[in-house]
Amino acid sequence: MLVLVVGDFHIPHRAYSIPAKFKKLLVPGKIQHILCTGNLVTKETLEFLRGIASDVHVVKGDFDEGDHPDQKVITMGSFKIGLCHGHQIVPWGDHDSIALMQRQLDVDIMITGHTHQFEAWHSDGKFFVNPGSITGAYSPLTSATTPAFVLMDVQGSAAVTYVYQLVGDEVKVDKVEYK
Hints:
Shape: globular
Radius of gyration: 15 Å
Strand content: 35-45%
Largest sheet: 6 strands, mixed
Mean pLDDT: 95
Number of strands: 11
Helix content: 10-25%
Number of helices: 3
Distance between the termini: 15 Å
Strand order of the largest sheet: 3-2-1-9-10-11
């Protein structure tokens, strides 16, 4: 199953829109599930995601209003996946603090956002992903952000993660596996 992992849109406050080269890749019928780390900011962004896949899971970012939970656990294939925006984890983006939340939620894969920078790493047999900001929205944590999102292909006991980053005018794709 193909899972879109995305977040930190910040449209219209910090970014105008999703880059056109990304929009061309995010079409209905290919992606089965969406896991969003929040900061959708508007209902229109949520409706855009629902147009890509009907199974959309969203947690509340620090710029979101509405009824989204602060954290969520979803089972996909043989994996329990934890989802949290990340502004609640202090220090922000700290691997040890994120690992503490992963243990509290008792999940195999922990997905967080907030830093606007893509990261993926393994630790103690678990997998951690931050999809970055799909729009490349400004972040007070860094002077430069690269627009990014993740597609995770979950097949049985393997999750192959593809990160898409817009570097200049070119979409670059890298692969990270978790078994």
